[in-house]
Amino acid sequence: MKTTFISTISLWNSPRNALAKMQVDLAKANQEIATGRYSDVGLELGYRAGQGISLRQERSELDALIDGNGTVSLRLNVTKTSLDNIRSTAETYLNSLLSLPPLERGAETVRDSAALNLKALTAELNKSSGGQYLFAGTNTKQKPVNDYIAGSPAKTAVDAAFLGHFGRTQTAPTVFDITAEEMRLFLNDSTNDFNKLFDGSDWDKWSAAADKNIESKISTSEKIETSTNANEAAMRKLAKAYTIASDLGIAGMRTETQQVVVDKVMQLLGEVTNDLVEIQARLGDAETKVKSANDRMDLQRKILDQGVGRLEEVDPAEAKTRVDALTTQIQMSYSLTAQLRQLSLLNYL
Amino acid sequence: MGLSLALNTARSSILASSSQMAVVSRNTAGASDPTYSRKIATLVAGGGAARVVVQRAADSALFYKMLETTSDTVKQQAVLEGIDKLKHTVGDSSLNQSSAARIGALSAALEQYANKPDDPILARAVVARANELVTMLNDATATIQRTRQEADASIAGSVARVNDLLSQFKSVNDAVVKGTASGIDVSDQLDTRDHLLAQLSEEMGISVVTRENNDIAIYTDSGVTLFERVPRKVEFSPTNTFNASTVGSAVIIDGVPVTGSGPMPLNSGRLVGLVQIRDQDAVLYQQQLDEVAEALIASFAEQSKADPTLFKAGLFAQSGTIDMPPGWDDDPASQASAGLAGKITVNAGIDPAKGGVLDRLRDGGANGDPDFVENPGVPTGSNAAYSDRLYKLSQNLSSDRPFNSALGLGDKTSVKNFAASSASWLEGNRKTVSTNVNYQMTLLSHASEALSNATGVNMDDETALMLQLEKSYSASAKLVSVVNEMLQTLLNAVR
Q1: Judging by DSSP bridges, how do beta strands B401-402 and B344-346 pair with one another?
Q2: Which residues of B171-187 are buried (b: 16+ CB within 10 A; e: fewer)?
Q3: First-to-last CA distance in chain B?
Q4: Contacts of B122 in chain A (CB under 8 A)
């Protein structure tokens, strides 16, 4: 056997053997330049492929949370405006009672504006946004507060309580006979039907709202209350104050009794203002939390995007260099193949 | 008589040159055939005559090395082909079509719904994501089983080819043995026989023993006799349809099973790769998906209030029943029932497309039983912003639960992570096998190049030889004519 022997097939194929592989590499590099990612991400990453999938999922979860926070912010905003309305109405009414001794302005005025305010309160509490009743707690598909009109459960209960205690209706002329002491007893006895209607279990004649507020997950780790409801003490006291002023027949009472009624109303309204501010503060706090959670998640989103990029993206400049090198190599291989073809002893005979 | 002796010698030299020339032309003809091995015409001169013996360039060490490398390469290629098919179930990570991505999408939809549980559009989105996830799992199961079935069919094809090659081998080997015994030129038959061996090595790893009179016996790389004077029978009964619990049959050579857990399993060749896909990789992947399906059903399960040990299916159910799959709450986890990923479906009690009620997703009681309702709102359906259950469900998807540790993805993790690990496992395998294929391909190309250099034809060499022969032929011919002239001269002198 000869020491250096090469078969013609080997010789002719030698520049060509690597050609197929180089062409595949060239196609890969071209695709990587076009897309900016590995041509076959899974093959490139191997056991780390799951990481890419997880990072994308975390990102879409953040997207969903930020999206949901939009709804939450809207709800908080609208609720706050409503609370502002309720509070300013209550304050105006309280001021009007304080500024002038009410009885000089006429008990009818006191009664009528209380009735209007009660209606306004009901309207605010029944406000909805994005298909949700704002003050319904978690029972968002049901109108939270019933209108106070003849025949409504609340009105019927108030009438019954008054009739049961005093033995006459609010419109009867004999209302004039009720003494101040009797009225004070009626208003302050927490066990009677009238007070139970507001402070006790009979509140459901007014409200269908749930006690539980909507809880929202505002970031991957925080879950906070993001609504309020019509069962809060402030709302009960407001309804009570407006009902006392509007529907206990204040117009027909004697002056001392009227004074007792007005005093009670003023006391209730005074407490309400503080309670409302407290609710608003709670919602404002939630709003701040939502905002800072959004800021944080925006940042996280960017980091996750960068993570995906580091994992799956290629350096286009590097890919271009690869294309150049491969092109040169392939050209050389072509021209060598062509030259080898001419290398034959036969040509020299 | 010197002159006639000279004439005879010159004549035999002409004959020898012609036969050498014939060999040169044979070599030239075979130069571009990679299976052709160079013939060497050796001139044996002596006793006043020249004789030509045809030999064949061969290098058995290189040849066996090439056979071995071929078997390894083809095995890895078969595995890679199978895994590439399974890979379609994962797709590119940017397409978000893997089970992990679908679970992520479901979880995001669930959280969005939990933030606004009174919005039926969001509930519908959750059910849509759930349907996509279920479709993915069902499709993946179909793909896996189809891959197994295709592997099985390829095994049958491979076995048929082996049998065919063996019967061809028998006739060629017989010719070689007979020819060698009677001393005739069998080099072309030897080429054919080597070519058959090379083809055989694609299907399974073989080892070859050469015996008296060039007879060859073939054994598998595990030692089972494949050919000894007569071909041994290679048997395989294909399975036509595969489901998750189907076990494919084994390949049997000469009565000995050579795949699976038999005593003499093959080590390389396409058969081994195909069996590995059919019986290991695809099966393991199916088991992983089954575990994912079980974890999904378990994550959404509903608990009875009357009997806290009683659970029924929630959003995800097995097709046709609302009962939980057996062994779903075992810890440490047992393997989920085979093919669960193909049977999982969105509960008809919730999916509005199947007449279900969307709100049950939020309230519980997917199957219409008030005992399973979690929303405290009365009447049922009120308290529309009740989100506790939804948050709990979304929590379930990301909290740890037991998984079958035999699947190689850990024993306790969240279903999200488990699904992502499953994708990682598949891609990791693909990368490993693909690297192996590249490596083996390089080895194979070196081995065949070395073999070609040892046994191939160099045309220039043959041309040079041809020139040499031409000269020697001319010289012999000249001798004949000179002798002829001398004899003529002698005869003329006599006349």
Answers
A1: unpaired
A2: ebbebbbebbeeeebbb
A3: 19
A4: none
**Which residues of B are less than 8 Å from A7 in CB distance?**
31, 38, 452-453, 455-458
CB A10 within 8 A of CB B384: no
Please state the length of chain A.
349
- Closest Cα of chain B to A195: distance in Å? 25
Residues 6+ apart with CB under 8 A from B350: B127, B314, B315, B356, B357, B358, B360, B361, B366
Mapped onto helix, strand or coil, the DSSP state of residue A231 is coil
Q: Which whole number is the average pLDDT over B103-118?
A: 92
Radius of gyration (C-alpha) of chain B in whole angstroms: 37
The pLDDT tens digits for A131-153 are 889 999 899 888 999 899 988 99
d(CA B474, CA A252): 153
Structure tokens at A274: 């503080």
pLDDT at B374 over 50: yes
Considering only CB atoms, B445 lies closest to which of A6, A17, A50, namely A17
Please give the Cα distance from B263 to B253 (Å, whole number): 12
Helix axes A316-342, A19-35, angle to 10 degrees: 160
The CA distances from residue B471 to A187, A346, B21, B155, B463, in Å, are: 141, 17, 12, 57, 13
Domain boundaries, chain B: 2-57+459-494, 65-442
Cβ atoms of residues B389 and B363 within 8 Å: yes
Neighbour tally for A302: CB within 10 Å = 11
**What are the tokens at B377?**
């709102």
How far apart, in Å, do the first and last CA atoms of chain A sit?
A: 26
pTM of the entire structure?
0.88
Find out whether B216 and B198 touch, Cβ atoms under 8 Å: no
Q: Which amino acid is at B343?
A: K
| Per-residue pLDDT at B378 | 72
Residues in chain B: 495
What letter does residue B278 receive in the DSSP assignment? I
Q: What is the ipTM of this complex?
A: 0.84
Q: Is the dihedral of CA A117, A122, A123, A125 positive or negative?
A: positive
Which of A92-96, B289-293, B328-332, B380-384 is most confident?
Answer: B289-293
Region for residue B355 given its phi and psi (left: phi exceeds 0; alpha: psi -120 to 50; beta: otherwise): left
Cα atoms in the Cβ-side hemisphere of radius 13 Å centred on B286: 28
Structure tokens at A295: 């800021």
Backbone angle region of B373, left / alpha / beta, with phi > 0 → left and psi within -120 to 50 → alpha: beta
Per residue in A216-235, pLDDT (tens digit) is 999 988 899 999 999 999 99
In angstroms, rounded to a whole number, what is the distance separating the alpha carbons of residues B451 and A5?
11
DSSP letter assigned to residue A177: G
B83 in A contact zone (CB under 8 Å): no
Residue keyed to tokens 């160099």: B458
Residue B455 CA to residue B30 CA, distance in Å, equals 11
Across the interface, whether the CB atoms of B377 and A6 are under 8 A apart is answered no
Quote the CA–CA distance of A59 and A9 in Å, as a whole number: 56
> Looking at chain B from residue 213 to 232, which residues have their Cβ under 8 Å from any Cβ of chain A?
none
SS3 content of chain A, % helix, strand, coil (to 5): 70, 5, 25
Q: Which residues are registered as beta bridge partners of A133?
A: A128
Beta-carbon count within 10 A of A53 CB: 28
Q: What is the Cα Rg of chain A in Å?
A: 40
- Conformation bin of residue B224: beta by default, left when phi > 0, alpha when psi is -120 to 50: beta
From residue A320, alpha-carbon distances to A18, A22, A32, A60, A315 in Å are 20, 14, 9, 32, 9
Confidence of residue A1 (pLDDT cuts 50, 70, 90): very low
Is residue A137 within 8 angstroms of chain B, CB to CB?
yes
Predicted local confidence at residue B50, as pLDDT: 79
- Residue type for position A4: T
Which sign does the torsion angle of CA B68, B74, B77, B82 carry? negative
Sheet strands (E) in B236-340: 252-253, 256-257, 302-303, 311-312, 316-318
How far apart CA A8 and CA B457 sit, in angstroms, is 6
